[in-house]
Amino acid sequence: MRKYIAVHTMPQPTSVEDATPLVRKMLDNEGSNAYWVGSWAQTNAEGKVLKIFCEWNAPDEKTIRDVFAKVPEFPLDSIHPMTKIDSADFRQ
């Protein structure tokens, strides 16, 4: 399965707790063909989430878009194919 990064800009700064219902709704719609691996969140000085970068495993971008189509209130800016590179890959 390929890896992707989905980018989400929150409409307003929000806490992780306030975003949890949307995340749970998205999880209810994922499946074995597309699943969320984990995320990084860009936060402001108050710790509120501004933007989320989510790692997904899926056969293609459309399969991920289909998950988010069922949760239209969850913002989705873009989806990008990715390759994960760890610093350990370059240490000798």
Protein topology:
Elements: E1 2-14, H1 16-29, E2 35-43, E3 49-58, H2 61-69, E4 78-82
Antiparallel strand pairs: 1-3, 1-4, 2-3
Description:
By secondary structure, the chain is an alpha+beta fold. The chain has one domain: Alpha-Beta Plaits (2-Layer Sandwich), CATH 3.30.70.3090. The protein is 25% helix and 40% strand. The protein has 2 helices and 4 strands; from the N terminus they run E-H-E-E-H-E. It has helices spanning 16-29, 61-69, and strands at 2-14, 35-43, 49-58, 78-82. The longest helix has 14 residues, at 16-29. It is globular and about 40 Å long.
- Percent in helix: 25-40%
CATH architecture: 2-Layer Sandwich
Shape category: globular
What is the highest CATH level, the class?
A: Alpha Beta
Strand and helix order: EHEEHE
Radius of gyration, in angstroms, nearest whole number: 14 Å
What is the CATH superfamily label?
ORF SCO4226, nickel-binding ferredoxin-like monomer
Main attributes of the structure:
alpha+beta; Alpha-Beta Plaits; four-stranded antiparallel sheet; 2 helices
Summed up, what is this model?
This protein has 92 residues and is an alpha+beta fold. The protein has two helices and four strands.
